[in-house]
Amino acid sequence: MRKRLLMSDQTLFRNIDVFEIDYVPEFFNYRESQLDDLAYQIRPALEGGRALNAICRGLPGTGKTTSVLRIFAELEQTTKKILPVYVNCQTDRTKYMVYSRIYATVFGHTPARTGVSIKSVMDAIGGALQRQGKSLIVCLDDANLLHYNNMLGDVINTLLRLHQDYPGARAAVFATVSDMDLDLASDLSRWVTSPFRPSDIYFPPYDAEEIRGILRDRIRIGLYPGVFPAAILDRIVEQTMESGDVRVGLDQVKRAVLNAECAARTEVIEEDVTTAYEQSKHVHLAYTIRALSADERLLLRKIAELSKEQQPLISGAIYAGANSKPKGGYTAFFKRLRKFDALRLIDLIRVHAGGRTSEVVLRYEPEKVVQICG
């Protein structure tokens, strides 16, 4: 019997937005403990006080952003006492841009683009909070990017000390951090840590069954029945586990279905998934590289360049060929290699020479790493 083909005006998607990275699901599984912790931090603000500060820590694609957005969406629907503001530090990378994002949420429009100082923007925010009696909670998503540029301390300090100039103004900070080696408690000055004192909320990587559950739920909501066979989903779970980033799986499902649509098929086949992975596997790479410091990106680029010329690539050769040596010498350098390994950008393989000498295997195509590192 001949297979039914998809008509030109038909689609396999019930809702394609379900597979977008910024989609916030109505039912968010496997992060109940972290959501409870965030709710605990917010509780004082619901009672008229100031929320407690928090750091949401975990590798890219472990649900940090979605958890905060889920809590913020609930707050917007249930209370007028709290003003939640989400700031994406990948796009808002300066103090003025961060404060402008807060201003826009408070007043419904952005401040003038020229001739307005940071102080006047913060004065307006502080005055509004004082008059309205609302408690401000700012999520600095990928806050480590501000920290690499030496801005995070100023931003946190300014927000948490608003009450000094505007009595009654209340503000708290939730910072999401993808750099597992970053210790804000010791890196930030005492002047900042004194009002900050955040709780640490850890987001572990999803395991295979959790990834399968997340993808299965999105497929059920976002696609029509029978479009995605279970056996093919198993293949995507496998490849998502390799990257450790659930966003890779979500992107791969979407691309595979689009491939089936282009071929006018009503069911995804193996070829659709294989083709989709060639693009989707770089989702993790791109998001992870954005979370690195400038020096770390330079080192990763160097590894990519050397891996095209030297096989096997040994850690000592990378250190010798680096344009600049990090403070702390080889110890600091090797710590960065371990970080790349933890982020699944490279594989570190100990060689028989002993000590910390290791073979470095890049997980991605060198050309793509160089391109994204810039």
Core attributes:
single chain, Arc Repressor Mutant, subunit A, 7 strands, Rossmann fold, alpha/beta, 17 helices, 374 residues, Helicase, Ruva Protein, domain 3, 53% helix, globular
Radius of gyration: 23 Å
| Oligomeric state | single chain
Question: Strand order of the main beta sheet, please?
Answer: 2-3-4-1-5
Main beta sheet: 5 strands, parallel
Please tell me about this protein's structure.
- The chain has helices at 32-46, 64-78, 95-107, 118-132, 143-148, 152-160, 162-165, 184-187, 190-196, 208-222, 230-243, 246-262, 270-290, 294-307, 315-321, 329-342, 366-373; strands spanning 54-57, 82-88, 135-141, 170-177, 199-202, 346-350, 358-362.
- The chain has 374 residues and is α/β, with parallel strands linked by helices.
- It has three domains: 16-20 and 206-289, Helicase, Ruva Protein, domain 3 (Orthogonal Bundle); 32-202, Rossmann fold; 292-373, Orthogonal Bundle (Arc Repressor Mutant, subunit A), CATH 1.10.10.10.
- The chain has a five-stranded parallel beta sheet, sandwiched between helices. It has a two-stranded antiparallel sheet with strand order 6-7.
- α3 runs parallel beside α4, α11 (230-243) packs parallel to α13 and α14 (294-307) runs antiparallel to α17.
- The longest helix is centred in the last third of the chain and has 21 residues, at 270-290.
- The mean pLDDT is 90.
Give a topology summary.
Layout: H1 32-46, E1 54-57, H2 64-78, E2 82-88, H3 95-107, H4 118-132, E3 135-141, H5 143-148, H6 152-160, H7 162-165, E4 170-177, H8 184-187, H9 190-196, E5 199-202, H10 208-222, H11 230-243, H12 246-262, H13 270-290, H14 294-307, H15 315-321, H16 329-342, E6 346-350, E7 358-362, H17 366-373
Parallel strand pairs: 1-4, 1-5, 2-3, 3-4
Antiparallel strand pairs: 6-7
